[in-house]
């Protein structure tokens, strides 16, 4: 069993480019996305989508599915930032600038214009950063990424944590797939009540089997003389593309110019 993202990381339209170029491009665009204004961030999201779908040949349906899942998580997890909760009987109670407000008991719930603006900026920044991350994830295999980071003198401890988390994703996917297959074979998802019960059993078994697998992995690594350094190997040959280098550089310069012009007019 393989992850779909791993399959595309090895079979995308940019798989012959050196991974250091793709990683450097992603990091450069990510840095710009973190500090830029909303208009520039929208441009970054569009530019990275062109590279991912147009140049890397990632199917649009698959790419949009990844974006939808990630954006839904971002929207739901940031709702607490959007809604302000205050006690009505507090001395500093003020509803000026409130767009929407309602009270329940002694609590006043509201959404103000300033908070809504910050919320939208947060969402746009997340969209831009996720587009950079998805380009990297769908075009650079993990093995090659670790090799590049090691050449860049990335801390060995962080590389070890990255590889362990990467393997944990594999373990979780395989465990969930096996458990769901067994539950479906026994009619575990026949109706809504059975589905809820099956999901609760799946979560409980998932934790137990994941911890068991990780313990076995630790014992196996110790038995093989693991010295806290994962050694990865890639025999692929790469070809540099001046065209892609210039296009990436030109796009970055245009986006940076857009950001600087926005700052000047702001």
Brief write-up:
The chain has 266 residues and is mainly alpha-helical. It has ten helices and three strands; from the N terminus they run αααααβββααααα. α2 (19-35) packs parallel to α10 (242-265), α3 (38-55) packs parallel to α6 and α4 runs antiparallel to α6.
Can you offer a commentary on this structure?
This protein is mainly alpha-helical. The protein folds into two domains: 1-82 and 118-140 and 239-266, no CATH class; 142-233, no CATH class. It has ten helices and three strands; from the N terminus they run H-H-H-H-H-E-E-E-H-H-H-H-H. It has helices spanning 4-11, 19-35, 38-55, 60-77, 79-82, 113-139, 142-151, 156-185, 192-223, 242-265; strands at residues 84-87, 98-104, 107-112. It has a three-stranded antiparallel beta sheet with strand order 1-3-2. A hairpin with a 2-residue loop joins strand 2 (98-104) and strand 3 (107-112). Helix 2 (19-35) packs antiparallel against helix 6 (113-139), helix 2 packs parallel to helix 10 (242-265) and helix 8 packs across helix 9. It is globular, with a radius of gyration of 23 Å. The mean pLDDT is 81.
Question: Which helices and strands occur, and which strands form pairs?
Answer:
Layout: H1 4-11, H2 19-35, H3 38-55, H4 60-77, H5 79-82, E1 84-87, E2 98-104, E3 107-112, H6 113-139, H7 142-151, H8 156-185, H9 192-223, H10 242-265
Antiparallel strand pairs: 1-3, 2-3
């Amino acid at each position: 069993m393989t992850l779909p993202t791993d399959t595309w990381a090895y079979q995308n339209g940019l798989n012959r480019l050196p991974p250091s170029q793709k990683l450097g491009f992603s990091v450069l665009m990510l840095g710009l996305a973190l500090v830029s204004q909303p208009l520039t961030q929208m441009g970054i999201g569009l530019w990275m989508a062109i590279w991912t779908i147009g140049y890397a040949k990632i199917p649009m349906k698959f790419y949009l599915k990844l974006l939808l899942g990630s954006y839904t998580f971002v929207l739901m997890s940031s709702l607490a930032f959007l809604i302000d909760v205050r006690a009505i009987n507090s001395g500093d109670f003020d509803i000026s600038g409130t767009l929407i407000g309602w009270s329940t008991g002694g609590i006043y719930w509201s959404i103000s214009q300033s908070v809504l603006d910050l919320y939208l900026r947060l969402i746009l920044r997340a969209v831009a950063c996720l587009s950079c991350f998805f380009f990297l994830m769908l075009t650079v295999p993990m093995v090659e990424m670790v090799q590049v980071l090691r050449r860049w003198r990335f801390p060995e401890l962080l590389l070890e944590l990255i590889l362990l988390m990467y393997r944990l994703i594999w373990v979780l996917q395989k465990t969930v797939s096996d458990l769901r297959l067994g539950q479906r074979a026994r009619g575990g998802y026949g109706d809504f009540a059975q589905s809820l019960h099956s999901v609760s059993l799946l979560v409980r078994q998932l934790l137990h089997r994941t911890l068991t697998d990780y313990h076995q992995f630790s014992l196996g690594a110790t038995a093989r003389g693991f010295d806290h350094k994962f050694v990865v190997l890639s025999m692929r040959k790469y070809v540099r593309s001046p065209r892609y280098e210039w296009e990436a550089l030109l796009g970055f310069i245009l986006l940076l110019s857009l950001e600087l012009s926005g700052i000047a007019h702001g």
